[in-house]
Amino acid sequence: MRNGSQLVARIPYPVVQPKSLNYGDSVSESLGFPELPDNFDELDEREQYREAELLRKRQLHYYYVEATAEVNLTHYNALAHDFSILRRKVYHHASDPWEGDNVTLKADLIQLTQNWAKIASPHGSGSKGAGDETEAPLSPPCPITFSEQDVNETLHLYSAQVEADEQFAACRDAIGVGPEGWVPSDQYEEAKRREGKLKADALSSAETEDERAELIEDWIFDDFNEEYS
Q: Using an 8 Å Cβ cutoff, are 27 and 58 in contact?
């Protein structure tokens, strides 16, 4: 990769929807109508809770965009502008405090290079009107490049990372804790009970003794030292 910082600097600040109403997974971004899975009634209580919570988040996203289209068309048009979701991702992932994750932003930049001709074109990705024989101006060359091997390795790693993040978020939701592990004091005992059941289920699902030992040693909800040296 080269000149990544130059590329991010050229992207204008994007129009965004409120963070609390922007779930941002692939289903929400596609603006498909959110629904429970077909096998919902066959799931156990913990999985049903997780799917119901996921549906609620996707519904908030969907109905915000739908209501915006009805009552604030100008804002909706800005939200729905060519590659607006990708533009928002690049901007925010480039400006977020760095926490050791290079993959997320790099995957965004790869997607941007793959769509650069449409993004950088003065006419966006729209087609020419009927009877318009005017040659569309060429877009400027993309200021960053990635090798084919780099693209394949990064997208594979990003896919695995997204899956792990989704599983972790589902575990947090099932227990009822926030992103940093906090829980209201009056819900602590119930959260600990759920966490204990989740750990027991994970250990019972382990296929080898080595896997069980790793789960016990590195359990994601164990206490940890909040003081950094």
A: yes
